[in-house]
Each structure stands twice: as C-alpha cells, then as structure tokens.
Task: inverse folding
C-alpha cells in the first residue's frame, strides 16, 4: 500500500483541471499566467465567453501552488489570509462571479476561502470579514471604498498579492471608475508590489485603458496588454421588412416587426432581445405577448430598475435554458454566462460598433461557438447604421472610452473615506492621488480647495461657521465624530443611484424602482407599464409608489434617465462613408441594397451627401420654415449644434426656434424664413468663441443644475436617509437645485459649480466632438437643397419627440406665451 | 422695484408682493410665511457644508417690503426658524440687527410645526408669539385649516406652494406662488434656502406666481391633455 506518489506540479494541477472541463488552456491564458508569475500587471481583452476569467484567475492560483507544493500543509480549516481581490462593476454579478471562481478551487481541492463582500452581504459576514478576510474576496468599487474606512482592515489589504478588475471597460469613463482608480492607488501604497490585472472587452483605446488602470507610476516594461481569443465567428443579419415603405416606417420603435421577431424566437432555443431603453423593453415585451399569448411564462423582461428578485429569477431561467426569450437592456450586457443563448436580437441602433460586437458575443457563449445577431431596424436609416457597424467591426474601428479627468466630487468623497480610515497627511496623500491617471494634473489650488471643502465647508477665505467634517490634528486629517462616519459610509454607494422611488404592490411586494420625477407626475388611477405588467398608481407614500394590477391600455410608459446614448463618432464616420458609397451608386450588402428605392428618392428630391459635404434641406410647412441639417455626428453633438445655431442666428435677428435632433441631424423650425447663406456668412458654424456661445446658447444653467444633482450626492451634500431615522433627518433634506442656487448666490467660487459646468460641456454636450464637427464642416462643401417634400433623411427627425425651444424671450414672456397657448388649446375643445 | 398685484378676497383688500409677502393695506400689516431662518446653520451643524448668507438674504427682502409698504406690523405665519440648531451665533446676530433696524414695526410669530421644535426664543427679542391670530375676520395660522364659516378668510403658510406652467413644447420650472383655494390663501415660502411643493390649482382655485419679482396670475388648464 505504501507507494510514494510524486505530487503533481502546479502546472499539472491546472492542466488536470482544464482537462476535466474538456478544454485546453489557450495560448493567451498561459501568457497571462506567466506575466502574473513574473510580477507584471496588465489588461486582458478578449471576446465575451472566451476564457478571460480563467486567464486572470489562474495566475494567483498557480503562484500560490508553486509556493505551497506540500499538500500535507493544505488545511481548509486554516485558509491562507487575503491574497486576491476581485472587483466586479455590479454587485448583482458578485454571486455569479463567485460561482465561476469557485469551480477551479473546488476541483483542485485548494484550501482557499472565497467570499463576496458587497452591499448585499449580511452584517454578520461583514463583521467577521473585518477581523479576517478570506483568501480571495469578490467585491465592488463601493465596497472597496467602504473597507478603506475601517482602519483595521488596511493591514489585511496590505497583504494582497493581486487585484483583478473585471469588466474594466464598464467602469472606465465613469465616476465609479475614478473611485476604483483611487482605491487602487491606495492599495498600491499599502503594497508597492501589488499586481493589478484588468479584464476588458475590446476597445478602441486599450493602452489608455491599461494606463488608467495601472496608474502613472507603473513601470511601462512591466505593464502588459494581452489580447485573447479574437476571432470568434460572428453572423450578423438584419430583419428587412418585406416592403420598405417610401419613408422610414413610423411607429418609432419598430413594433411593426413583432411578427418577424416572433418567428425568429420560435426557431431558436433561447434568445436575448436587446432594446436601447427600459421603456422600449416594456413595450416590446407587451407586444410580443400580445402576438403570442401562449408564450406567457416563457418570455421575460429584464432591466436595471427591476427588483433584484425579479432579475435573478430571469437570470436563472436563462441559465437553465427554461426561458425562450428575455427582452432586456444593457442590464444583460455584462457578466453572467448564459450558455443556452443561441441568438441575440438588437432592436434599433446599437449606437456603436464595439457595443454591437459585445452584444453579439452574448450568444454562443463558448470559445468555439458562432455568435449570431439579428438586427431589427426601427427606421430605414438604421439599416445603413448596421451596414456601417459591420464595416467598422471588420476594420477594427472600435470605439474608445475616454477616462474622466479629476472630478472633485469623487475626490472629496475619497478624502473623507481616508480620513475616517485612519487619517492622512496632506502631502503624502496628494502624492498618492496624483499617481492616478485621473488626478495626475490636479493643481495645488484644486487640492487645497478640496481639502478646505471637507474641513471647513468653503474655501479658506470663506470658512463656514460651525461646520466640521474632517478635522486637522497637528499634521493629520482625521474624522472624530461618529455621526460623520455613519453618514459617510451610507453615502459611499451613491455614485450610481439617482433619485429613484420604489414601485410596490399594495400588499408589499416590490417590483422595482422608477424615477421620482416620473412617478410624482402621475395621478392616482393612471396606468403604466412596469416590469412587464400593466399597473395603476394608487398613491405615493413614504418614498414608495403603491400600485395595483390593472387592465386596458397604458396611459404612459416610465422614462428613465440616461437611456439615450449617442451614436459613436466611429460609427458616425462609417455611416457617412456608407452614404458616400450610395451616392456613387455603390450599394454593398443586403441592407444597403434593400434601400435602393429610398436612396433614389433622396437623390431625386434632394441629394445624398458625400463624405466631405454637409447637406442642408429647406422645407416650407404650414406655419413655418424648416431647416434640416445633416452633420451625422450623434445626438448629443446635434443638440449642442442646434442650440448653438439657433442662438447665433437669434443674435442678429429676433426670432424663436423650436428644434429636434437625432443621431443624423437637426431640424430647426422658425416662423420666419431662415436665410441660410447669410447665417453661414455670419459664422453660424464658426469655431470662434465656441465655448462661450455654447454656455450662452443652451440653457446652460438648467443643464448644470441637473448635472449638479449627482455632484451634490457624491460630495456628500445630500444624504441618504439613515435607516430607522428617516423622520428625524427630514429637516436635513434639501434638493440639489436649492444647493445649486445657494452656492451660486453665496459661494460662487465653489469648484463644484465649475465641475457641473465642465461636465455639462464635456459629457452632456460633447464639446470637443462639437468642435471637431465644426472643424470638419468648415472644410466641407455645403449643399443646400429645396426638396418638394420631406425627404427620407428628414423624416425620422419629424417623428422624433425630443423637442427643445431656444429663444431670447424672458421668462415672463415665455409664461405669457405658454398661457395663451393653453387657452387656445382649451378653446378648441 | 418689485411687482405687486392688488386683489380682493371676500371683501378684503390684499396686495400680493413680488418679494413673496402679502400686504394688508387696511391694517398696515405685512404677512410672510416660512422664513426658515438658520436652516443653513442647521445643515452645517450636521456636517453638510452650506455657505452663510441665505438668512441675511431673506431678511433683506423682508426689509425691502417693510420699507416699501411702510408697514406697522409684520406677522410671520410660522416656521420662523428651521430647527433648534438654527439659532447659531451668526443667525441670532443677523436677527438682532434686523429687529434694531425695524424697531417701529410690531412683530408677531404665529407658531408653525418647525417652531415647536425650536423652543423659546430669546426673551429680549421684540416678537410676540401666538398660536393663531385674527384680524378683522381674517384668520392667520400656519397650517391651512378648512376655513370656519364664521371667518371670512384664512391666510396661512406651511405648504411652500409652487406651480409649473406647461405648454406643448415648453415648460417652466417650479415657480413659487400664492394659492387661493376654498377661502384659504396660502403664501409662498419666503426663506431663500427652502424648497417648494408643486400644487395643482383646480376648479375655482386661483393662483399667482412670482417670476423675477413680478406677480402674474396663473391661468388654469381647463382641458387635460393626454400626456405621452
């Protein structure tokens, strides 16, 4: 019996594990393991479902195995202390992540302890973890920040060997991404040899994504980008209606295509149907059920505002393959492996090539399977978009995600976090903070201001009496008051959540959340679609909307903010090239060929703009003159451009414009004829004084105010109610608008106000893209046509509901006009 | 110069002022509501940074109305202070300066719900505190009660009323307003650091909104448009 078996080498252990799963390690996975072993850091990118997780997870395991070969010493009762931190962007993903990380641990019989720590974890687990963290911990950026408020956890965090950031592309370019950067900088200071590995979908700016992840102090020779399994086979097809109407068919969200979509669902095992907004998912779900009532229970709906229990029911159904289809938003873009899904349907514009690629990857979620995506256009031009996206993917022209630059609200929050977790010394922390990509250019003045803000409220010149949050003791900044700690810890998770209200049945079951601004506008009895059901409002009480099941027709569909993404600049560019091809008579691919008739009408009535042309169409309608301008630059840029044009024109001629924008162009309507040539001559498209004109043209204050809502929450001006103390903290409630007004009036130098203006300029209006667009226009030939009727290109602009008005009228005049309008409307009944 | 709208309610003359007060010319009395003095101090005390200045701003606008009307009496219809911690040193100092400047004006506070939590005001302050008050069959209170049949009219605060004007393509933000409903006139909150609550006047209600210190009567929507 006594036979000495040579213990397997670490590599053999891993090979054995792979063998048991039926796969072989890919070459890129091995490269990541080697790099990790050598103490390097980096970013791994690969198509969805091609083994990224194991690529980064095996590094730490191999490393531990090679240090602890003697199995005698493996004791599951005494798991090794914290070695690996795994950061996931969504806490909803933590459970699944934990499961997939656990599989190899169990298979190899490692004595590791693996746990999660998120907002959903039990208090008792969190308390135990405060004393001793597991060997590997799955957590979120917020929970990491929270851990840093506990001084006694820092010692454990200092023992980390590696930190892995999953789905880094989702965090990059967001404030939570910046929060992550700050957290990583802190971890690196605790352990300068920390390995940092990011996992990302393929982006247009991978090296920037890596640099942001690793910080400015990273050694370039030891910072890697490892490309994974690249060429997952992709099959893209479009559902083209039998008869392309002369004009992009109405309906706005393409529900005319329901029968064709149902037919596709019928033929596949399991399908994800992506819509671009939560409202659209509600509508599509209803329409599909109406078409196929027998599918009740087989199809489901999933979006970010639904209650966790609803969502996890759907996710489980997808995993087990028991659901035929799920109508969803980007909520299912991430994580969770749904191996059963064999088809993805995209309804409406995907807005970007990278996004389309990633969504397609949700189907055939195995290294060698084919990804299948069917595209359902909601208007004819979207078919050009798909063709353009196809080209962009083929040429690897994928979108970049721009990292954020020094948001001071996040920094203020971080300073309080560090002050609570043991305190800091100014110079030392400044060095650490400047080691992040986001804050590398933070000036001394800005640093001083944020420091003053958390200590004294305002700048040092204008200290706020009786205000204390962070206190200075000798050279150290600390927090001493228990209430500040509690308040702050409650607030850390608030970067994401907007002012939302729960939607509940009268009997108490929670359906999900919707925006307060939407719910508060509903009167009792009004019916709306929510979570795939028709419900009616009963009452709003204690920050919850109570509803009951209803029947009949909905009065409205909830709108959630942030649902509308603009067309990416990469895709915009590809779209312009497609149009030029069409203008030259080249219609390549099924999508483009199906549009032949439409293109001919466009040519006949107006023209098809070439890549270096800007098309302007003038049409006279009852009650006004319409000007359609087609820069093809994405909705946000167009919103800015429309307001800018209207503003500049109203500077030399008193008039009022109403306008609408979409991803292709802008329509301005005015009661007076619009002299285009004069406008161009007077510099309506000029880049001179651009920033100033933008700020004047948009109701910039209104937008900044809206932007300030989030800033106020992150910087700790607005507090989440303390549990059980909601009533007593009522007197500390004030809206962000109120804060904005008071700061504007009495502390106009407050840098948070500046930040809101900068965010409006750069993120809401995409000012730099606007500048590029105007530059491009200035080198373009401007083609003005007077079509006899609304052209195929113009038509979608007329059905777009988003309308704004720009005028130089005073508020009082506006009210007079509005009241008159109402009276007129009333008299017509 | 702030705007003003002369109205008559149940036989009583009333001027609605652009400074968010109501002036009773026959009684030389200025009515205001919901000053919430020192709210910013309460916030600071609770570790939320808010600049100083809004209490002084509110006092300035009250002062302007007192001077322009030549009022002999000022009545605050409740919620004079926000909370106990609102009586900070700087806020008390501002109030005392104000009292000194308007010695000729008799001051009265009709208690509101926030005042209940504040406790006694400093005894040297020249302000009479009552739970409600009558002037010539006009009842003054903080909360809007149903007007008792024996009174002509109730004037009160508490609600911080505001309206929004909406058209098909445009809408204003919330605008503070005077709201008259069922013989009860609700004054807008005058405190600078106070929020508003949207009301929807209906039926025979009337409302006057204050826009850039002008008082404009709100015209009711008579037909409800289906919203999409």
Result:
């Amino acid at each position: 019996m006594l036979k000495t078996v040579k213990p397997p080498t670490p590599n053999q252990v891993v090979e054995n594990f792979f063998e048991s799963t039926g796969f072989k390690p890919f070459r890129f996975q091995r490269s990541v393991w080697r790099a990790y072993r050598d103490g390097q850091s980096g970013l791994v990118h690969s198509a969805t479902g091609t083994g990224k997780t194991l690529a980064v997870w095996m590094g730490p395991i191999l490393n531990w195995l090679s240090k602890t070969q003697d199995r005698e010493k493996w004791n599951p009762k005494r798991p090794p202390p914290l070695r690996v931190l795994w950061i996931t962007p969504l806490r909803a993903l933590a459970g699944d992540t934990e499961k997939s990380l656990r599989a190899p641990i169990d298979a190899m019989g490692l004595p590791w302890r693996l746990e999660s720590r998120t907002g959903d974890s039990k208090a008792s687990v969190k308390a135990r973890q405060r004393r001793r963290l597991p060997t590997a911990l799955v957590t979120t950026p917020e929970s990491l920040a929270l851990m840093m408020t506990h001084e006694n956890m820092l010692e454990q965090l200092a023992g980390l060997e590696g930190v892995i950031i999953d789905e880094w592309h989702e965090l990059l370019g967001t404030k939570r991404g910046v929060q992550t950067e700050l957290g990583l900088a802190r971890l690196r200071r605790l352990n300068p040899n920390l390995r940092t590995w990011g996992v990302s979908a393929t982006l247009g700016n991978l090296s920037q994504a890596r640099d942001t992840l690793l910080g400015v102090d990273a050694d370039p020779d030891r910072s890697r980008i490892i490309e994974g399994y690249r060429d997952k086979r992709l099959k893209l097809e479009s559902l083209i209606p039998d008869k392309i109407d002369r004009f992009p068919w109405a309906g706005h969200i393409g529900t005319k295509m329901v029968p064709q979509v149902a037919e596709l669902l019928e033929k596949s095992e399991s399908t994800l149907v992506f819509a671009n907004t939560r409202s659209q998912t509600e509508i599509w779900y209803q329409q599909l059920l109406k078409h196929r009532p027998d599918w009740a229970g087989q199809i489901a709906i999933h979006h970010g505002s639904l209650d966790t229990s609803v969502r996890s029911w759907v996710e489980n159904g997808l995993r087990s393959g028991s659901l035929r289809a799920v109508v969803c938003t980007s909520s299912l873009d991430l994580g969770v492996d749904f191996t059963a899904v064999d088809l993805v349907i995209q309804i409406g514009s995907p807005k970007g090539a990278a996004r389309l690629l990633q969504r397609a990857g949700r189907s055939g979620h195995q290294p060698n399977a084919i990804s299948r995506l069917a595209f359902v256009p909601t208007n004819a031009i979207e078919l050009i978009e798909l063709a353009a996206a196809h080209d962009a993917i083929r040429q690897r022209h994928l979108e970049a995600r721009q990292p954020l630059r020094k948001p001071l609200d996040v920094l203020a929050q971080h300073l309080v976090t560090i002050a609570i977790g043991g305190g800091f010394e100014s110079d030392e922390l400044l060095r650490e903070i400047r080691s992040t990509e986001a804050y590398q250019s933070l000036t001394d003045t800005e640093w001083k201001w944020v420091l003053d803000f958390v200590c004294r409220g305002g700048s040092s010149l204008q200290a706020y009496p009786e205000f204390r949050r962070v206190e200075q003791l000798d050279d150290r900044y600390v927090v001493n008051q228990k209430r500040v700690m509690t308040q702050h810890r409650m607030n850390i998770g608030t970067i994401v959540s907007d002012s939302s209200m729960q939607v509940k049945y009268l009997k108490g079951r929670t359906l999900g959340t919707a925006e307060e601004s939407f719910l508060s506008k509903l009167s009792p009895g009004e019916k709306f679609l929510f979570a795939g059901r028709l419900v009616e409002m009963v009452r709003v009480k204690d920050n919850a909307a109570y509803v009951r099941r209803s029947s009949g027709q909905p009065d409205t569909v909830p709108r959630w903010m942030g649902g509308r993404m603009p067309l990416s600049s990469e895709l915009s560019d590809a779209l312009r090239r497609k149009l030029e091809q069409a203008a030259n008579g080249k219609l390549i691919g099924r999508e483009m060929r199906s549009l032949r008739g439409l293109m001919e009408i466009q040519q006949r009535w107006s023209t098809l703009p070439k890549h270096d042309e800007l098309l302007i169409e003038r049409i006279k309608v009852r009650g006004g003159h319409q000007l359609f301008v087609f820069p093809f630059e994405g909705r946000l840029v167009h919103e800015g451009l429309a307001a800018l044009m209207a503003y500049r024109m109203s500077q030399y001629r008193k008039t009022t414009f109403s306008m609408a924008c979409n991803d292709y162009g802008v329509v301005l309507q005015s009661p007076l004829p619009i002299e285009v040539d004069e406008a161009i001559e007077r510099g309506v498209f000029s880049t001179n004084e651009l920033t100033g004109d933008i700020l004047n043209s948009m109701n910039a204050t209104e937008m900044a105010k809206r932007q300030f809502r989030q800033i106020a929450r992150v910087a700790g001006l607005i507090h989440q109610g303390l549990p059980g103390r909601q009533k007593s903290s009522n007197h500390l409630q004030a809206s962000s608008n109120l804060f904005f007004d008071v700061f504007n009036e009495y502390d106009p130098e407050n840098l948070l106000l500046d930040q809101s203006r900068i965010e409006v300029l750069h993120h809401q209006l995409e000012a730099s893209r606007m500048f590029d667009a105007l530059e491009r226009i200035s080198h373009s030939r401007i083609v003005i046509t007077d079509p006899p009727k609304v052209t195929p290109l113009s038509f979608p602009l007329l059905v777009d509901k988003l309308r704004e008005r720009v005028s130089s009228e005073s508020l009082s005049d506006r009210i007079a006009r509005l009241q008159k309008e109402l009276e007129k409307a009333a008299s017509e009944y | 110069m702030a705007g003003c709208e002369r109205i008559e309610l149940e036989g009583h003359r009333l001027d609605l002022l652009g400074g968010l007060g109501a002036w009773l010319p026959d009684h030389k009395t200025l009515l205001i509501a919901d000053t919430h003095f020192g709210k910013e101090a309460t916030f600071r005390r609770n570790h939320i940074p808010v600049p100083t200045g809004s209490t002084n701003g509110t006092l300035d606008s009250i002062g302007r109305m007192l001077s322009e009307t030549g009022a002999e009496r000022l009545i605050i219809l409740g919620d004079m202070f926000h909370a106990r911690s609102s009586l900070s040193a700087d806020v008390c100092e501002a109030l005392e300066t104000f009292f000194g400047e308007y010695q000729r004006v008799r001051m009265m506070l009709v208690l509101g719900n926030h005042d209940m939590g504040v406790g006694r005001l400093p005894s040297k302050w020249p302000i009479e505190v009552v739970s409600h008050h009558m002037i010539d069959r006009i009842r003054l209170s903080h909360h809007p009660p149903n007007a008792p049949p024996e009174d002509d009219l109730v004037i009160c605060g508490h609600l911080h009323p505001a309206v929004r004007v909406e058209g098909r393509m445009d809408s204003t933000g919330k605008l503070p307003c005077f709201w008259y409903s069922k013989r009860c006139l609700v004054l807008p909150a005058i405190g600078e650091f106070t929020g508003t609550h949207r009301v929807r006047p209906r039926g025979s209600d009337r409302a006057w909104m204050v826009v850039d210190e002008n008082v404009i009567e709100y015209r009711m929507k008579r037909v409800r448009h289906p919203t999409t």
About this structure: Chain A touches chain B through 56 residues (CB under 8 Å). Residues 722-728 of chain A have pLDDT under 50 and may be disordered.
